[in-house]
Amino acid sequence: MKVVVITGSAHKKGTSALLADKFMEGATEVGHEVFRFDAAFEEVKPCLSCDYCSAHDSNCVHKDSMEKLNGELATADMVVFATPIYYYTMSAQIKAVIDRFHAKNAIFLGNKKAIMMATAYGDADWTMDGLDKTFELMLGFLNWKNAGTLYATGCPAREVIEQTDFPKKAYEMGKNIK
User: Would the N or C end of the chain have less CB density within 10 A of its end CB?
Assistant: First the structure.
């Protein structure tokens, strides 16, 4: 299976980066092909909703790192999102990537699975509600199958999440994807 992992944290050693690392470790261990795109460390300009793509064969007016990601996404069987929670939803870095799916909607629609992994400082039972609803709506629009979520609440720092079972759960998710 070809898996694309998109991260949204500006912290290379942060909590959601740890989940992505562990997921990838499990997935590659059992033979899946994995491509990682760290949105915060790439040049991703925001979608302008200019519809340049509509008149230019799904090519975006921006020429940036999305060009290399789009090729990987087009052939991916699964897309995994790993993000910290900022104001009850995904980070701006990963949201900019998702907004740019607009140019390639026709190519990305259907026949993919997706996983959402997220970390949050808060641990209230509603902490992930905004992200969960966004993920649900995105999957519905793209006609992708929900292959699972891993929501690590109460994890404000790397040293905290390392003391939980969330990294092991991310590893097991990667190892058990089908």
Answer: C
